[in-house]
Amino acid sequence: MKRSRAAFLVVGLVLLLAVQVLCTSMLLAPAGARMQWPEPGSRHGLEFIASGDAWAAPGPGAIVSLRVEAVPGSTPGAEPLGFPAERPHIRYGGQSRYALPTWTARVALPSEGDWSLKAVALTTDGRRIESAGRRILASAALGGVADRGFSSWSVPHLSAIGFILLGALAVAYFARKGGPSWLRAAAPWIVLVMWANELAYQSYWMAVGGWSHSVSLMLQMCGLSIIFLPICLFMNDGPRRRRLADVLYFWGLGGAAQAILTPDIGASGFPSYRYFSFFISHGMIIVAVIALVASGSVKIGPRSLARCIIVSNIVVVPAYLVDRLLALVPPYAPGNYFALGYPPPTGSPIDLLVRIFGPSPRYILGLEIMGVLVFALLWLPWGIAARARAQDRVSIN
């Protein structure tokens, strides 16, 4: 690897780590409240969904109620309107185990104009925990709650999938035609787009009050792919690169494809910044993997599948420990990296695994089976191609 490329990788990795550390350090207050949505200065209909998070140290001062308070901008001293907020609960067998720090509230403003909003949490020991206020503009002409919400398989969703497929096909064509030399020339641009988007996204998410180390650390398959794919792209061909590529092929395609087909971006529909950043991030993972494969730099075999399964099982052990440790530090939310901690409150196939195997860590066995099946499906085209080549050799002989 050339020194210039090595320096590029080091600078990028240091920046990504620095942003993660900075964002984590800014959340270490023992109590706090934040509003993530709506964004400051944004325009909305009279009814919309507000969201954010709130936390207090475990003990006698636990949060007992949450609400969003709204005051008209023209009369800042007026009595605030209150809209109750709800927190999602992790449930097993119909029983609530614990509430997450995140909250949502349905806000219905009585009139148009400037409004000042803030989140307020009340605790059992009488404390009032407030978020920073933010001003928005309400207009009846902008419609209702779901105006900017994201809908799966809508035109914006299908359009994003279409652009990613077109980009992947274009990269596959040029990579196949140009081979390793094309990959060496294209790799810096792929990495630049991937990492610049990630740095911007992390910074944006902290600025709007949505960054949390329980969900935002780069410890998911896609986050780890964003870290290691650039390293793999810049490495010289050899055993180490091929071993790393074996894992990233399955992690990158499996994780990114699942995220693109079932996006979890809530109210951030088209044309919000998060919409574009989300699909750019996961689309670039697929582009990077396709570039490696189509250029001939990666060849997937049975050992590749076995290596990915082994590495994945090794990685989930510290990931599970991190999930548990995060519940001990503000905002006191257990992590859910690799979906090891709890089933997503919005519903997912993990709910079925919980019914079959039981709560975490027991349903991790079901995740293991599901992961092996997905990885095997990604290996299948390579297996079919290898079998076809073997039959051609036999017929020729």
Task: Describe the protein in words.
- The protein is of the alpha+beta class and 397 residues long.
- Among the domains are: 1-13 and 154-299, no CATH class; 301-388, no CATH class.
- The protein is 51% helix and 18% strand.
- It has eight helices and eleven strands.
- The protein has helices at 3-25, 155-207, 221-234, 239-261, 273-294, 302-326, 350-357, 364-396, and strands at residues 31-37, 43-44, 47-56, 63-72, 81-86, 89-92, 95-99, 102-108, 113-123, 128-130, 134-138.
- The strands form two sheets. Strands 1, 2, 3, 4, 5, 8, 9, 10 and 11 form a nine-stranded mixed β-sheet that branches.
Topology (SSEs and partners):
Elements: H1 3-25, E1 31-37, E2 43-44, E3 47-56, E4 63-72, E5 81-86, E6 89-92, E7 95-99, E8 102-108, E9 113-123, E10 128-130, E11 134-138, H2 155-207, H3 221-234, H4 239-261, H5 273-294, H6 302-326, H7 350-357, H8 364-396
Parallel strand pairs: 2-11
Antiparallel strand pairs: 1-3, 3-8, 4-5, 4-9, 5-8, 6-7, 9-10, 9-11
